[in-house]
């Protein structure tokens, strides 16, 4: 792979979680990013491109990992990518203020035989801690290029690219590999000499994996590496026997299993390096400040109340502040509608645009402020380091339903949107935990369902709006807890996975990073409004207008027929056919519920005003029932698709859909009947 | 609260000498991570063949895993048992020296004998007495009735032994990470237990001889947070149980 001049250079970003990888990625690629279908924090691998000096760089952001040992899904993804894809340079983001543990991954990356550039990030933090580093010496000892960076300020990005270019252009020397324990080194060399494996002059096995890495990983008990090693051998049985013999021999010699010995050795190697290159001058410890903050935020008695308070504040901000902007947008949209109405000649086109498109899409766009705010807060909590604390605080409670504290983060994200939330379950380490978290996630009321609640509470519960909406959210959480307990008992009767998690020091998120995040999410929402929802609005409009000549969405229209066909089903819940149609269409996307209501009720009411129309057709009880059903039944096509992708099983996907419909019906029925019993109307 | 639990003698009929072997293996492992036959023979001042014989007997009871020429591993049951014996030993010695005021050099032999002879219940109270005395400051003044009511319901109006405060008897020098209280410091001795968890813990930096400090426990007492290798790591008690540590007093 020694190539001379390349125009296309592939860079893989690898690093520990919280090392600043996302920040580096954003700094490098700016807006030229291709985020997989749906981003879940750093789980999906994102790609970006940039051009410089006539070169085109493709940058791949790998999931944040601690090791290459195939322990979690993320490690497997990152590792498979590093091993199987044609990568020119690995850029390893290392948190300079947490060198010891960050370099553990580096020691493994060095063994892959690819050129590595270490981006020593957070140099500012490290210096603030009074830590001085001899970078030249470190680079020399590790045999890699080192670039100091402060990603949060965009410093060092240019140098990363320069170094990458240098390596890619001039060819490179494979980095010096980590030196293990002398005894281990001897055994590894012996194996490399003796094993009947086919190795090219770069030390790579068939399938291009470095033989040394395969041998070391096999000694570490890695089953994938073991298989690959066998595959590249002329006599697999003999190879494996020899490796096993060495393993036994090492175990005897050290009195401990080789994987622990090797891990020990890596840390030993790092310790040696750091003694050579780090000098510390005592000064204010940033981490100590972080610990002081935790004394309060993770306090025995105050921790959880503060957390719940923060969640409450999140909701307050989302709804109250968001509401102000929403009003402005509403005014703008209706002015725009009126302007168009005056402009266009009356007829099908005008009807399509005003009753269909503007009523539908407009009804969804008004919620952009809410969504932007909720993601603003979520990404602030994420980047500041508080999310990990939330997992720490909530682990015990989550454990009650057999879940991991880390499940709390996807659950919380579910309040924003279930799609990234379902994808974020990749941070969970076992399939059972993931499935369980995925199955109950749709019960976390996503931001797209919020418009429905806001619409109805605005009309029926204006005095206690926030309380009523909060009760819906609480109901969702309650049902999630109960379902979780049920599923854990019936479907996954195995203990939850281990909880071994870093609590990164608190950091002030950068405005740029946070806004980037918010923009990403909001854009996804908006583009949904532009495509799925636009299409759905037109379909609904057509169903409401056909056959030609009927009064718009009256019971003679197609939609009327459809609605009346399913009306008997929703009747026991006190809902009419239009509500049923709205729910049905809402499977496309929850935002469509409101736009359908807009078309079906607003479009057909003499005043044309949705609020008036709804206040005539619903009672506060049926409104509440409708909200409850909207909360629970099938989240949306996008979530279902995400569930399919993440579970990789139609069986579970269908189970999720069936369960949510059944549960929605059951709970809706109970709420409505109980309401009638206690005399609500 | 794990009060008293480490001291309970399990329902297993072990001869004194077998208990001594277990204790020795535990102590060696805490110190060196690895226990070999020759280490045990040196520690206990017995000949290697006797050690081998004892190990076979312990292996039959499912307390150790031992294959010729390999180092000795404790099973989970063996580890728990061995830790209990070690705790009794240090506690009895502490009682003899710091309460009864016997000279250090003389008590070792006696402690070895006593630790087997005393019933777990008696021993437990002895230990509490040692700690109760320690918790009452320099003048060590308290009424016997205070101690008796402390034994009854754990209340201690004067000292800092009240029931809801995390409590690890000062006599305990090495135990599981899960038993440590916030503010305590220690050294990782070794990580036992299931493979995947063990691997993850080691990879996160919990290798032998690494120093750490327990920072806090989460509101419901679980998980716990420690500082290790310059960063903060949280883990559940059930995972911390796999980590054998040596307490370091500073
Ligand atoms: N002080 C400082 N903060 C940084 C630097 N790089 C990133 N950060 C901050 O560290 C936090 C985590 O960064 P992020 O890129 O999300 O980490 P990731 O988990 O590795 O993707 C964010 O709040 C960033 O603003 C840096 O060089 N210096």
General description of the model:
The complex is a heterodimer of chains A (681) and B (250). By secondary structure, chain A is α/β, with parallel strands linked by helices. Chain A folds into 3 domains: 8-170, Rossmann fold; 182-286, Helix Hairpins (Orthogonal Bundle), CATH 1.10.287; 305-494 and 503-677, no CATH class. Chain A contains 29 helices and 10 strands. In chain A, the strands form 2 sheets. Chain A has a 7-stranded mixed β-sheet, with helices on both faces. In chain A, helix 3 links the parallel strand 5 and strand 6. In chain A, helix 14 crosses helix 25, helix 18 (418-424) packs parallel to helix 28 and helix 24 runs antiparallel to helix 25. Chain A is elongated, with a radius of gyration of 29 Å. Chain A starts with 7 loop residues before the first strand and ends with a helix. Chain B is 46% helix and 15% strand. Chain B folds into 2 domains: 1-168, Winged helix-like DNA-binding domain superfamily/Winged helix DNA-binding domain (Arc Repressor Mutant, subunit A), CATH 1.10.10.10; 174-248, SH3 type barrels. Chain B is of the alpha+beta class and 250 residues long. In chain B, strands 3-8-4-5-6-7 form a 6-stranded antiparallel β-sheet. In chain B, strands 1-2 form a two-stranded antiparallel ribbon. Mean pLDDT of chain B is 83; it is low at 1-11. The chains are: A alpha/beta (681), B alpha+beta (250). Strand 10 of chain A pairs antiparallel with strand 7 (231-235) of chain B. The site of guanosine-5'-diphosphate (GDP) has 22 residues of chain A, from helix 1 and helix 4.
């Amino acid at each position: 792979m020694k190539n001379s001049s390349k125009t296309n250079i592939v860079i893989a970003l690898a690093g520990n979680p919280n090392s600043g990888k996302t920040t580096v990625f954003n700094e490098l690629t700016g807006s030229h990013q291709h985020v997989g279908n749906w981003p879940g924090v750093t789980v999906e691998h994102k790609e970006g491109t940039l051009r410089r000096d006539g070169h085109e760089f493709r940058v791949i952001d790998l999931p944040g990992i601690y090791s290459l040992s195939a322990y979690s899904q993320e490690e497997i993804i990152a590792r498979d990518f590093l091993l199987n894809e044609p990568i020119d340079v690995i850029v390893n983001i290392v948190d300079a203020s947490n060198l010891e543990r960050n370099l553990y991954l580096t020691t493994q990356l060095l063994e892959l035989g690819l050129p590595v550039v270490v981006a020593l990030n957070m140099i500012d933090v490290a210096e603030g801690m009074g830590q001085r580093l001899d970078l030249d010496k470190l680079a020399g000892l590790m045999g890699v290029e080192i670039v100091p960076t402060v990603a949060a300020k965009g410093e060092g990005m240019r140098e990363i690219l320069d170094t990458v270019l240098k390596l890619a252009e001039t060819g490179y020397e494979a980095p010096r590999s980590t030196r293990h324990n002398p005894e281990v080194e001897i055994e590894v060399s012996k194996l490399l000499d003796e094993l009947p494996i086919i190795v090219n002059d770069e030390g790579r096995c068939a399938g291009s994996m470095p033989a040394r890495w395969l041998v070391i990983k096999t000694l570490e008990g890695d089953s994938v590496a073991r298989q690959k090693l066998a595959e590249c051998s002329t006599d697999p049985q003999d190879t494996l026997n020899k490796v096993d013999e060495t393993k036994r021999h090492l175990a005897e010699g050290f009195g401990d299993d080789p994987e622990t010995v090797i891990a020990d050795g890596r840390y030993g190697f790092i310790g040696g390096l750091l003694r050579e290159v780090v000098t510390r001058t005592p000064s204010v410890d940033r981490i100590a400040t972080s610990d002081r903050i935790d004394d309060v935020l993770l306090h025995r008695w105050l921790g959880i109340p503060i957390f719940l308070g923060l969640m409450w504040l999140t909701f307050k901000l989302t709804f109250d502040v968001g509401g102000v902007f929403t009003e402005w947008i509403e005014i703008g949209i209706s002015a725009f509608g009126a302007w168009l109405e005056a402009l266009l000649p009356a007829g099908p086109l005008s009807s399509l645009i005003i009753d269909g498109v503007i009523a539908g899409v407009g009804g969804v766009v008004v919620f952009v402020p809410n969504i932007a705010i909720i993601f603003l807060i979520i990404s602030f909590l994420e980047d500041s380091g508080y999310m990990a604390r939330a997992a720490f605080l909530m682990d015990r409670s989550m454990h009650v339903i057999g879940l991991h504290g880390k499940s709390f983060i996807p659950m919380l994200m579910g309040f924003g949107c279930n799609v990234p939330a379902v994808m974020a379950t990749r941070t969970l380490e076992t399939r059972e935990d993931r499935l369980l978290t995925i199955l109950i996630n749709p019960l976390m009321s996503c931001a797209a369902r919020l418009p429905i609640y806001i619409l109805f509470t605005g009309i029926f519960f204006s005095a206690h709006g926030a309380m009523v909406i909060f009760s819906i959210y609480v109901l969702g959480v309650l049902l999630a807890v109960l379902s979780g307990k049920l599923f854990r008992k019936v479907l996954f009767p195995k203990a939850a996975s281990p909880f071994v998690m870093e609590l990164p020091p608190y950091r002030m998120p950068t405005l740029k990073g946070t806004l980037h995040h918010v923009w990403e999410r909001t854009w996804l929402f908006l583009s949904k409004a532009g495509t799925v929802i636009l299409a759905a609005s037109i379909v609904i409009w057509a169903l409401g207008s056909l056959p030609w000549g009927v009064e718009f969405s009256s019971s003679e229209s197609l939609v009327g027929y459809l609605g009346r066909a399913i009306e008997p089903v929703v009747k026991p819940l006190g809902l009419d056919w239009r509500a049923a149609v709205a729910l049905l269409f809402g499977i496309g996307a929850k935002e469509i519920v409101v736009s359908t209501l807009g078309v079906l009720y607003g479009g057909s009411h003499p005043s044309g005003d949705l609020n008036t129309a709804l206040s005539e057709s619903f009672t506060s009880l049926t409104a509440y029932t409708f909200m409850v059903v909207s909360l629970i039944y099938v989240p949306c096509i996008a979530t279902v698709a995400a569930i399919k992708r993440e579970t990789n099983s139609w069986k579970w996907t269908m189970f999720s859909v069936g369960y949510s419909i059944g549960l929605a019906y059951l709970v809706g029925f109970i709420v409505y009947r109980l309401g009638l019993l206690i005399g609500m109307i | 609260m794990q009060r008293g639990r480490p001291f309970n003698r399990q329902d297993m009929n072990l001869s004194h000498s077998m208990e001594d072997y277990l204790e020795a293996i535990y102590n060696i492992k805490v110190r060196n991570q690895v226990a070999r036959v020759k280490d045990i023979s040196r520690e206990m001042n017995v000949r290697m063949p006797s050690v081998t014989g004892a190990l076979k007997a312990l292996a039959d009871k499912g307390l150790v895993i031992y294959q010729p020429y390999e180092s000795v591993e404790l099973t989970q049951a063996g580890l728990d048992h061995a830790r209990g014996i070690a705790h009794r030993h240090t506690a009895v010695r502490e009682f003899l020296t710091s309460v009864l005021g016997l000279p250090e050099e003389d008590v070792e032999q006696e402690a070895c004998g006593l630790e087997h002879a005393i019933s777990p219940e008696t021993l437990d109270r002895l230990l509490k007495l040692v700690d109760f005395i320690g918790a009452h400051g320099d003048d060590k003044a308290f009424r016997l009735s205070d101690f008796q009511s402390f034994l009854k319901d754990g209340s201690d109006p004067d000292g800092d032994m009240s029931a809801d405060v995390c409590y690890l008897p000062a006599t305990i020098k090495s135990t599981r990470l899960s038993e440590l209280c916030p503010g305590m410091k220690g050294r990782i001795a070794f990580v036992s237990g299931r493979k995947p968890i063990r691997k993850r813990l080691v990879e996160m930096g919990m290798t032998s001889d690494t120093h750490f400090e327990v920072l806090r426990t989460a509101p419901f007492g679980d998980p716990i947070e420690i500082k290790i290798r310059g960063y903060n790591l949280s883990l559940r008690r059930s995972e911390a149980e796999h980590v054998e540590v040596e307490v370091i007093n500073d």
